[in-house]
Design goal:
4% of the residues lie in helices and 50% in strands. The chain has 627 residues and is mainly β. Strands 24, 26, 27, 29, 30, 35, 36, 37 and 40 form a nine-stranded mixed sheet that branches. The longest helix is centred in the N-terminal third of the chain and has 22 residues. The protein starts with a helix and ends with a strand.
């Protein structure tokens, strides 16, 4: 009975293998030597003997002979640039030589490529495969039996991996550096004065990953969560060539050290896909993490990660664009900003500790525009949203660069101060202009108006403001992108402004047109759905709490020395706030009497605990990250 079960299992495995081979697309080369070797030829300097046997072909060459190769009679086409390829051969060795002289290689003439591996005859302790003709770093196996060997050609066609029976044996081998004029093909044989003795069942080659079991992609139901809240993240994993039933491990790890933060949960592969529910608790602090997926008990398959972030609640509002230039320079990160300019040197943009500085005085006529602009920003139709920038402006020497009273004619020189903060979308533009205050002039935030051939600051529709101080400017567009309101530090200054017409891409633009001069610093730019303007008098976004809530803070992630707001519920009064280090050392104690209070956070970066006490002696702790 047991023999029947074993035999049936072997039949099932064989059938499964047949179907697996049918799925792969061996569209470059697919030759089975079971009955003939038609379409194959010998290239030789010495004598190589080819013998057709039942189920395979044998090639043999004595060590006294010169080089000789068994290869396709017709070379295959050049490989496509930027594409990866797979090769598999099923081979066993005869005992002609125990040296690693049996060579199998991919050769490509136009690309000057040789990707060989070498086989030495022997059992599981003496037989081996190597990437070197000298047998360096051998991978031991029984080469006297049929084994499937594979070459995975990386997309750059400069590196390859060697596989044995679908398992990674020797990774990241550089192509041979010597010159190659051989025709395109997979070659079997040996070099001069080296023997070979190989039985070959088949050789196959195709585009893509056909032998390299891998975790190909990870999709997350969400890529961030607010600190202090639990989240259940659905992890959807796509795999290549992993068998049904393969167990995957999904965990949350630190984005820098790789240390496990949330222990792994298991899921199994079915039809090259798997899903898992990863619960990320509220105790995980603010920071950058990654969801890691790996194969259980199989280190040959490379793990894959997907970025995940724990944020303060406020930052999650900015779900369309959120770029802080103090944290990521304008030209760095995964989505660098770009310069749109003409006849202006790129030095008009510089990175500073405060973020980014923009300065242009060139106004020599048409085509002297200069903008720092974001990657493309797309917003769903019928959506109200907020475009927000924290900025300040600095004086421009008006004696050296006097303001023209109006936009010069096309081609004429001259210009005027106009620090432009703009958002362009769907062939339209909403913008404001900042004019710096000096000892002799007031500062303004001005609406846009069409003047000459451009959009410039309005001479009448403006509001006086000390623009040399840092302010948060918020432009809130209605859902139809017809009008927008302008807020400064939460106070409405310009309402029902009309979008202008402007061709070009969908992007944030900071700078100025050809006749506009600017000198401003910008800390951050962000866009989020809805009206996200904080209340007047501050930028913290705190609102009065109902009596059922005890206490709340405005931020849990700030920069050193920033101000943080604390508010108590309607039935409570604040009495004290204390900052502690994570070791419990008291850093600062502040007495409070009132419903709300502004606290200055420590001047040193790090993670702190803020303990807020109320008039009824209840307390609440908040973990605060200072950058």
């Amino acid at each position: 009975m047991r023999k029947v079960s074993v035999m049936w299992a072997m039949i099932c495995i064989a059938i499964s293998g047949m179907f697996a081979q049918e799925v792969a697309d061996w569209n470059v080369l697919n030759k089975n030597f079971g009955s003939d070797y038609e379409g194959w030829s010998i290239a030789k300097g010495g004598n190589l003997i080819v013998t057709q046997e039942e189920g395979y072909v044998n090639i043999t060459k004595a060590g006294s002979e010169k080089w000789a190769w068994f290869k396709p009679a017709t070379p295959f086409a050049d490989l496509e640039s930027g594409e990866d390829y797979s090769i598999v051969v099923r081979v066993r060795l005869g005992n002609t030589t125990t040296e690693p002289y049996n060579q199998i290689s991919l050769r490509l003439s136009p690309e000057n490529v040789r990707m060989p591996f070498y086989l030495a005859y022997g059992d599981g302790e003496t037989g081996y495969i190597s990437a070197s003709q000298y047998g360096t770093d051998p991978y031991y196996l029984n080469t006297s039996e049929f084994q499937e060997y594979g070459i995975y050609v990386h997309a750059d066609h400069g590196v390859y991996d060697i596989y044995v029976n679908g398992e990674l044996a020797i990774p990241n081998i550089g192509k041979s550096g010597d010159k190659n004029t051989d025709a395109n093909g997979v070659y079997f044989g040996s070099e001069s004065s080296k023997a070979c003795d190989m039985d070959i069942e088949y050789v196959k080659m195709g585009k893509g990953n056909l032998i390299k079991a891998s975790i190909s992609s990870i999709e997350l139901s969400q890529e961030s969560q607010a600190v202090g809240t639990d989240a259940t993240v659905q992890v959807t994993v796509q795999t290549d060539l992993l068998a049904d039933g393969t167990v995957l491990l999904c965990s949350l790890v630190d984005g820098v050290s790789g240390e496990t933060i949330v222990p792994a949960v298991e899921t199994t592969v079915s039809n090259n896909e798997a899903t898992a529910q990863l619960i990320i608790p509220s105790t995980v602090s603010i920071g950058e993490y990654a969801v890691k997926v790996e194969v259980k008990d199989n280190v040959s398959v490379t793990p894959l990660t997907k970025a995940y972030e724990i944020k303060d609640a406020e930052s999650l509002q900015w779900n369309i664009l959120d770029r802080d230039f103090r944290e990521v320079a304008w030209n760095s990160g995964s989505e660098p900003w770009t310069l749109a300019k003409n006849r202006v040197d790129e030095s008009f943009v510089t990175t500073t500790d405060e973020g980014v500085s923009l300065y242009k005085t060139d106004a020599g006529g048409s085509y002297y525009y200069a903008f720092l602009q974001s990657p493309e920003v797309l917003i769903d139709e019928d959506t109200e949203y907020t475009f927000q920038v924290e900025a300040r402006v600095k004086p421009i020497d008006k004696e050296q660069y006097p303001d023209a009273t109006e936009q010069p004619a096309s081609g004429a020189s001259g210009g005027f101060e106009a620090n432009q903060i703009a958002f362009q979308q769907n062939g339209k533009l909403m913008s404001i202009f900042l004019l710096c205050d000096t000892e002799t002039a007031s500062g303004y935030v001005a609406a846009q108006e069409v003047s000459g051939t451009g959009i410039n600051p309005s001479s009448e529709n403006r509001s006086e403001l000390k623009t040399s101080d840092w302010h948060v400017y918020s432009l809130v567009s209605d859902a139809t992108e017809s009008t927008y309101d302008v807020y400064v530090d939460g106070k409405l200054l310009l309402d029902d402004q009309t979008w202008g017409t402007k061709s070009g891409g969908n992007t944030v633009k900071l700078g100025g047109e050809s006749w506009q001069r600017f000198n401003m610093d910008v800390r951050y730019v962000r866009i989020g759905e809805g009206n996200l303007v904080p209340p007047a008098g501050g930028t913290t976004g705190l609102m009065e709490l109902p009596g059922s809530e005890t206490v709340r803070v405005s931020h849990t992630m700030l920069h050193a020395g920033d101000m943080l707001s604390v508010a108590a519920g309607a039935d409570h009064v604040l009495s004290e706030a204390v900052f502690y280090s994570l070791t419990g050392k008291e850093m600062n104690r502040i007495s409070i009497q009132g419903r709300t209070s502004e606290l200055q956070v420590p001047a040193m970066s790090g993670v702190y605990v803020l303990r807020v006490s109320l008039d009824d002696d209840t307390m609440k702790d908040f973990k605060i990250l200072i950058k």
